[in-house]
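User: Run a structure prediction on this.
Assistant: Running it now.
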Amino acid sequence: MQIPGGRDGRRMLAVTFVDKAGSGLWGATAALYFTYVAGLSTAEIGLLLGVSGAVGIAGPPLGGLLADRVPLRPLLAAVQALRAVASLALLTTTDLRLLLAVTAAGSLGDRASSVLTKLYATRVAGPDRSRYQAVNRTVSNVGWAVGGLVAAAALSTGTTAVYRWLLTGDALSFAAIALLTLRCGEPPSPSQVVATGGTGAGAGTPAAGEGTPAPGPNPWRDRRYLAYTATDAILFLDDSVFNVGLALWAVTATTLPHQAVPLLLVLNNVLVVCFQVPFARFGKTPAKARSTLFPLAVAFLAGGAALAASATGTRWLAATALTLAAVAFTVAEMLHATVSWELSVALAPPTAQGAYLGVHGLAQAAQRSAGPLVVTGAIATGPLGWLGLGTGLAVMCLAQRRLTRDDDETAMSVPRITVSEH
């Protein structure tokens, strides 16, 4: 299979795999490490994760802003190195105050890394960015699965030392991807292309004496892009449905056996690995991405209705309804990932691409903070809560389609320029 972006595109996929495999090692064991190794209470762990998550919200806009002003490759490598240092530093202390500082720094680097990696892929893949995003998500899911399986096998030893080794593996994965990133080439920057007026192969680099390109448009003053980001934050709720809602609803409101719940998450992972790349065609252009918001609305509505239906009837009916809900929300996840990637880039002016994508990164950050509250609220309301959530997400899809209705008819935020054209 041909990978968009050539050699650098393939290397960045390797970065994604190693990154997610390392994160899989730590993500499944973080709470256990802080409990059994650091000796923190449940309240202290909640404070630790809450503060680090709040600090991490600043990562996407800060990383995106810097990416428009400095070379992207060394910036991304530096952020990966920060994540490695923060992970290793966790091994050196059990003091809550120091752990707060270290986890906050790591969260800041993690969120910044996410938007910078997306920006690199956008620049290196050019008009094939939608397909590259699909391949990248597939590799990401495989990496998470590998890391999670290794962590599960390691935890079977039953010793506290294994938590330190898993954290060390996570830190080493960040160090490895920093080195891999430095082996990649610097992608052409649209802001530098516009600033220099270059059109040749070297247009991505300012001419001698021209200095840093002037700052582009300010995303914080672009009301349409801010509105788009706000709607996207709501559509990212499919993440909380899988991470929080599906399992909690299944064990508290349905007759499905508890041991069958993990199979729903496995189903999600398998479907993403198998179908995310074919789904890339739904976001090949801004016009296709916009039209895909209709089936996305249907998928959200079907998922909410299936979860509502799972609370009634026999065990087999519950199992069938929950399976349909998992499939519907997985389809929604894949469609939304494709649409969001394309529209967030297409709506961003080329002279401020990093700053705009940094602001869009707040959509996922906000969802991670508020999403669990929304989903647990739907669970507390009962079947009508899931119907309301599914309907609300469907309505938001239609609202987003209206918000972006002139994408393929006029200019985006500014006249459209893609890196590949230069």
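DSSP finds 17 helices and no strands in the chain.
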